[in-house]
């Protein structure tokens, strides 16, 4: 039996090695679209942070929120290493989640 993800932790970037934003959502397609349209948050709108470069699924809210908080406390170099481990070209994963 496969468990559907409850929440998603994601990282957006303005460009490769650019400004990063970490968030959590129950509906990644809708939330990332809001960021892309400039209504996701004032920070992402101000710095044009729209490229989805990393996303993780969690089956519990507690696990997702803990992960989000931990990632936000990571050093920038660690965040970049995480992105490049799974997405070395910093491709926009947005197109993968809307398929």
Structure, explained:
- This protein has helices spanning 28-37, 42-46, 61-73, 76-86, 94-97; strands at 7-13, 20-25, 51-58.
- With 99 residues, it is of the alpha+beta class.
- The two termini are 23 Å apart.
- The model has no long low-confidence stretch (mean pLDDT 94).
How are the SSEs ordered, and which strands pair?
Blueprint: E1 7-13, E2 20-25, H1 28-37, H2 42-46, E3 51-58, H3 61-73, H4 76-86, H5 94-97
Antiparallel strand pairs: 1-2, 1-3
Q: What structural category arises from helix and sheet content?
A: alpha+beta
| Average pLDDT figure | 94
The level of helicity is 40-55%
How large a portion of the residues is in β-strands, by DSSP E?
Answer: 15-25%
Q: How is the biggest beta sheet arranged?
A: 3 strands, antiparallel
* Secondary-structure element pattern, one letter each: EEHHEHHH
Strands of the biggest beta sheet: in what spatial order?
Answer: 2-1-3
Number of DSSP E strands: 3
Characterize the overall form: globular
Radius of gyration: 13 Å
Amino- and carboxy-terminal Cα gap: 23 Å
Oligomer: single chain
Count, helices: 5
> Unreliable segments (pLDDT under 50, ≥5 consecutive)?
none
TL;DR?
With 99 residues, the chain is an alpha+beta fold. Helices cover 43% and strands 21% of the residues. The protein is globular, with a radius of gyration of 13 Å.
Please tag this protein with its features.
three-stranded antiparallel beta sheet; globular; single chain; 99 residues; alpha+beta
């Amino acid at each position: 039996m496969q468990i559907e993800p409850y929440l998603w932790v994601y990282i957006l970037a303005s460009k490769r090695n650019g400004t990063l934003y970490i968030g959590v959502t129950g509906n990644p397609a809708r939330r990332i679209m809001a960021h892309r349209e400039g209504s996701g948050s004032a920070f992402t709108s101000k710095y044009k942070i729209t490229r989805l470069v990393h996303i993780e699924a969690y089956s519990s809210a507690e696990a997702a929120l803990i992960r989000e908080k931990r990632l936000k406390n990571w050093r920038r170099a660690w965040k970049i290493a995480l992105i490049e481990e799974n997405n070395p070209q910093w491709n926009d994963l947005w197109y993968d989640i809307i398929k």
